[in-house]
Each structure stands twice: as C-alpha cells, then as structure tokens.
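Table S2 (continued). Query chain:
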Amino acid sequence: MSYPLLERINAPGEIKNLPADEMPALCEEIRQFLIKSVSETGGHLSSNLGVVELTVALHRVLDFPQDKLLFDVGHQCYTHKLLTGRRAGFAQLRRKNGISGFPSPEESSCDAFIAGHGSAALSTAIGIARAKKLKNEPGKVMVIVGDGAFTGGMVYEGMNNVSKLNNLIVILNDNKMSISKNVGQMANYLTKLRTDPKYSHVKAHMETVLERIPVAGDAMVKVLQGGKQLIRRGIYKSTMFEEMGFQYIGPVNGHDVDMLTHTLTNLREQYAPVFLHIVTQKGKGLKPAEENPGEFHAVSSIDLNHLTDPELSPKDSFSSTFGCALADLGDDEPRLCGITAAMKYGTGLNFFKHRHPGRFFDVGMAEEHAVSFAAGLASQGLLPVVAIYSTFFQRAYDQIIHDVNLMQLDVLFAVDRAGLVPGDGATHQGIYDVAFFSNVNIPVFAPANYAELRYWLTYLVREARGPRTIRYARGEENPALAALPCTGRRFDLLEPAAGARIALVSYGAETEEIIAARDLLAQNGQQADCVKLTQIYPLPDGLCDALKPYDTILFAEDSVRTGSIGEQLGFALQQCGWQGRYLLHAVDNTHLLHANVPELRKDQQLDAAALCTDILNHLKEKQA
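Corresponding output:
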C-alpha cells in the first residue's frame, strides 16, 4: 500500500510544505497506515485512530521542538511520531531496538516528556510552561488529555494551579460525549468568534476601559461577565473551567482538520490559559474499533478479517481465569465486591460484573480512590477485591499504607500484569509490587498456573483476612507451568534429584526459567533441585530448613532487586546459620527495554541460559 502524502513527510515541520486542501487526504492515509501497521506489530489502536486530525492540525501550527506537545496518556502519540520522521520505525513498534509506543525524549527532541500513566501530563505541562516563563523562552505548551483522565484527581490539582499561564493550552479529547446538531452549530459559531484575535483584543480592551470608570466600572464588568457566564451555562452546562482560570473554547469537531487548524492558529495569541474542548470518535476509521473501542485499545498482532467481540470470545488468560473464579466466589459470598480502575476487560472483572452488577465498581482512572473506596467498604464488613495492573498500583501506595494497612482492613489486592510485561517498556513493568507490598508487611501470593490461581484466590477470599495480595502474570499460562500440580502447599520442591547440592528457587512466571535451567545443568553433569514458592511474603514456614542442605542456592525473580524476596531470603538464610553460596538474579530497573518477555529475561539475566551459566561459573571458581 502506498502513502504518497505521508511519504513526503520525513522530518519535523515538513507537513507544512503540503497544501492545506490535502490535509483530509493525509489524515486518511495516516489512518490506513496505522491500521495496517499496528495490526502487524500490535500496539494501541483505538486511541490513535481518534486523534489523527487533531495531531495533524497541531503539527500544521506548532514549531517543534520550540513548542512542546504532551499526551495524557502517551499511547495517543503514534501520529505525532509519524509526522516527526519516525515512520520507518513502526515496522518494529514496541519491539526490541524499535520505537517506543509512548513518547520518548531519547528518540526525538519533539517528544517533550515520558507519559505512560494517566492524569499526570497536565501537571507536567504546567511545570514546563512555568519554566518557559521563568527562562523567558518563546513557544507554546500544549497537552492533550483524554476525557477518561478526568476521573483522576491529579487533573484537578493541576487545573487549580494554571495561574495565568498564557503559553498553556489544554486540549480535552472527549470521545464519549454526544452533541446535538443545534448545539453543535451554535458551538462552532461561538468558537469561530471567540478564537478570533480581534475578540480577545476587544474583550481585554473593554474590560480595561470599564475598570477605569470610577465606582461603576467594576460593577459593569461583573454584570457583563455574569451575562456571558449565564449564556455559557445554557450552552455548555458548566463554566467550571473558566472559574479555574481558563479561557474555555468548544466543543469543536475533532475530525474537522480545517476547523482545528483554524482554531489552533488563532490561539497562537492568547491572554490566558486555554481549555480547548474537542469531540472525537475513538477507533475512527475501523468499524469494529468504532463499535467496541475498548477491545481495540491495545492489541496484539491481529487478522483484520477475523475480529472478535471480547464479551463473546474472551481470550484464555490469567486475567479471565481470575475474573471467572471471582464471579463464582461471588455466587456464595454476598459480601464480595469487585473494584477496578478503568480496566474492566483487562482485569477480567467483566465476568464479575455480568453476574453481580450491583457489587461491581469501575471508578475510572482513579487508583487512589479505588483503594480508599475499598477501605470504606471493608470497614463496613464487606469483602472488596481491588483488581488493577501492577504498574498502576504504584499510584495508590499511600492509600494502601494509610487507608487499608494501618487498620488491617479486609481488602484483597489482585495484581494483574505482575512481573515483566512485553511491549510497553519502562512505564508499564510490573516489577515493584512485591517490594512495596512486602515492605509494609502485606502477605503476597504468586500462583504459577491457573489451578493455583483458582485455589489461592478461593483461600484468600474465604479464609484469609486483613490486607493481602495475589499477583499473576499477563497473558496465558506457560505449558511447562500448567503441567505442575496444585498441591495447596506454600512452597513445593519439584521432582527432587538424589544427591543434589544446588537449589534453584523462584515463583510465578519465572519458575519456567529455573525448570529450564535445571535441565541445562543436568546436560552439564550437575544435579539441581527446583523450589517454587507460592506464598512469597512472608517467607513460608520451613523454607529455610528445606534449603539448608544445599551448598549453592540461586534465587531468580522478575521483580526489582532492591527490597526483593530474593534479598529477604538471603538474609533469612544467613540468620539461620547457612553458609553456602547465594546467587541472586532480579530486575535491574536502571534500564528497561520495550521488548517481548523472553528478550527482557535475557537482557536482565533472568533466562535459563544465564542462570545455568552463573551456577557453572561459581562451581569452576569453587574448584579452582
């Protein structure tokens, strides 16, 4: 497929060389490029299809890198990357040595800031805009914020501090609100009027003149402003944004590239922070994505001719296994509640919602609220389960400590996407939860297969009390781990070998690698035993006694090294008098690639080959 207009853009600013009347055709080319490219590599699709015209208009108006463009969340940035000379990189999107699926200042000076988590970019943009003011630097700072991000409190914390930043433009990408024809036409007319520089000049001049009139001047200004706000309330239902210091403009059709370009051009001259409200359709240009944007939010490589509905054909995964098992438990336990933060399908809680709609709560992109809300439920005798991705639980750490743990409330944290996660790179790795839950003395369980997930979830719901955590990997169970029996024990010695003096210890998905490393060691004439933990914190009773007979112990985990279970086990063995050689393999979080899980394990020395090599090198040193 050829893209004659897009192929003429190979560097920042080259879009300005194309005639304005070709912009609709360029937008269509971009949309077709994204559908074809992302269907082959995987990536975020719906969100990017919705902001094509907006991003094109921004690149027609802005001058990079003097002007700054931020995204909330950064997965909307694909068109921006196309227009800044990174088209060729899409062949390896989110793969090792390819381009990131999020903004990356390391890739381009046109990427102002990393943005992988929602509701945060406005605060960052305000900081950048303020820095420009302090340094007397020219240029605009624009931030695109999806309507979903407005469920997160940081957005309002940021809006409360815009303080006359007339180099800041906040663009609300509203892909849910439906606007009637009449209101839309009136809004378009007012938008044209109010974005005209003449309007701004007249407004500012009139207020200045009126304020100079003794006694009556201020009153007249207030009357005029009050009349304007009454009209605005009638049209837009609220003037909240203006009351927080913004010049509110919109709603604007987010798929009219000419209108957007005209609006943004006029906003080059502004007297206050601007809040531009645009309306888009998520997934625009791909009918299945338009009808079900949630399913096409993030996709693996897909066959565009055979697309499925997630509610009819849920993919087999730890998430769906968890969701179905929790729904079953809800049948017998009327106090059980399911809570998530804009991740109904991703966490598998859609199954719980269908069975128990009155006890399901999606609080939006508000992880802090989700945890404190769960604390409130638990304080009244209910049994809330909070299911959130590991990377997003980081956002609620204060609430975990203060609102749940101090009172030892009965809240179960279901940590999805735990461990190494493919594609998204540093922003979405699930490598910190083990450290931060264990450091505040919250028990953590890490099942390695579906059978263990069902068993321990049942135990944690029906029998365990207080704050507690169950963590599991993204995607499907590994065949080698699926074959392991669910014994119900908190740690298992897997097929011990007679006379083995080496122990390989791990938990969760990384157990696959110690099993493979044991087989590699056997090929090199060395017998080793594998120990799989299911309860990883606190360390299970009897674990140190079981490990004492071994001369060499290697612990491998796909969690951050500092504060890891491996560190805790090493200390515990030392305290009980063990004097063998202890080798620890964990995640070095100083560099995290966007790559698939096997590549990440290899990069982090967590693959079977690296584990085997470390043992063999140690044995050579010992013999020497």
